[in-house]
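pasting for the record
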Amino acid sequence: MEIKDQFKETRLFVSRTVIAVAMVFIFLFGILLYRMFYLQVIKHEEFSTKSKDNRIKVLPLPPRRGLIYDRNKNILADNIPSFQIKAIPEEIKDPEKTINELSEIIAIDQEKIPKIIEEIKLKKRNRLKRHQDLPIKTRLDSSERDNFAVYRHKFPGIDIKADTSRRYPLKNIASHVVGYVGRIDEKELQNLNGAEYAGSTHIGKNGIEKHYEKTLLGEVGSETIEVNNVGRRIRSLSKEPPLPGKDLVLTIDIELQKEAEAALEGYAGAIVAVDTRTGEILALASVPTFDLNLFPNGISHKDYSALLNNKYKPLVNKFIRGQYPPGSTVKPAIGLAGLYNNIVTADKETYCPGFYQLPRVSHKYRDWKRWGHGKTNIKKAIAESCDVYFYDLAYNMGVDKTAEFLDRFGFGKKIMIDLPGEKSGVLPNKAWKKKVWNTPKLRKRYRGRVDSPTWYHGETLIAGIGQGFFLATPLQLAYSTAIIANKGKPVPLHLLKEIIDPVSGKKEVPMFRAPTEPITDVRASDWEVIHQGMREVVHGRRGTARKVGKDAQYEFAGKTGTAQVSSIKQNEEAKDCADIPEKLRDHALFIAFAPFKKPEIAVAVIAEHGCGGSSVAAPIARRVLDKYFKIEPPPAEEEDKR
């Protein structure tokens, strides 16, 4: 029998175990050394960069938005210091209690409180965003700042910080021209260049603020800061200041603008006044207006609903988006078309018995003057606004020739003014009606008014006095008036006079192009006939606006117009304006240029539901012209309705 040496076997087992464990430790230590070598040597540059990125942050510095002035350097939009209440989510233990108690000493919109509380809670849960400021209320007044200073110790995590805010010193003056800025929404954010708008919270929403957004914005700067491992700011390392946006000088004369808006008081409507020599827009009024300062920091639901539900639609820019039948204001252009196409001559007369009938048709198209104008030539037809003369002219010329000629005056197309949202109006002809009939979307827009693709003679007649499908914007009326004043020379209508770099002081004068070509193929004698007819409107013995031209210290030309809102039955007598519901009253229009011999200014006026062009719109235009020539307006007198 073999006897084992247990002691020896035990020693052998122990020694083998020690060796195995040692080898495992050596292997693991080798792996550790390799890992250290890999991290410290091979991956040194990569992890060093990541570490630096975690420690160093580059923050955007938003630029100062450019200022907006009128032509005389009166400020229309600027930036003012603004104080905001902001929250630091990390330091707020109970967001709900804190915000509710804060609302007792500072007026916070009750509708926004739940959203503010939820945003604070979300940021508290986000480790890297819990230190970021969250605005609670902007533009605190002095009493709110004082109230908060007294109770500041009760609100850890709530603080007041200085900022800048967009301000419109004139509030509602030229509101549709200047426009406003507002907070960038999610839809806009998707289409914006992130680098250009880094740090910016507002963007132009309307008017000049929107059209020249890129010019007003400026270039973003940056600040390099050092932060700790949880994102808290430690110190500033360097700064690259932002470049401020460029300042804009508009062509608007704010004093003339104020007069235009005041002249329309009591009516919804629009006024356009342009310099016939340069195309500079001197006044651009859309009434009613609204306070621009309601929008930059978020308009309340109550205020917005009041504007939205106002029956006179203050948010609609009427001078470029309002489309109205131009009425008799297009008679000078249509008369010129008749002369150009040799349909009529300066001396040819048409008898006006007070109505017009198509051949073999019993329906009577009535003149505004029930007993008629008698024998009428083109000069008298313009001065007295004889409908029958223009019915006959339109019928003999045809709608296509009429539309072809009026296209040269800018009707039916955008004038391309430097404002967003312009409408093109409607210059109807046979092709237009067929297009509407064959396009469901367009057909729906006219809600059954286009009942057939066939163009009827009756539609030609009413188009000849600016009614029916014919629609024009006040801007188009002013543009066409300027062309008539210049005897065929168009001018590019524009609002921007110059751009100023606030850093270098360098000025840039923009160039604009007229949307139509000069009318050079019309005889000088024909232009003279139209001018004389328009002069007779205000200075003639029987002119429809003769009272508005009475005692004028300058000679001017004009044309009254009435755009029918509701039709009158064949045998029904016309009612007095006071007996007609407001929404069914005719629109009142007037166009003018002055001085007569060397025109400087053209004006177009529309007063919605004003009934008479001469009784309402013409005196409004006279006030604007008097203001332009620095003349006190004459006492108001009752005018004819037409």
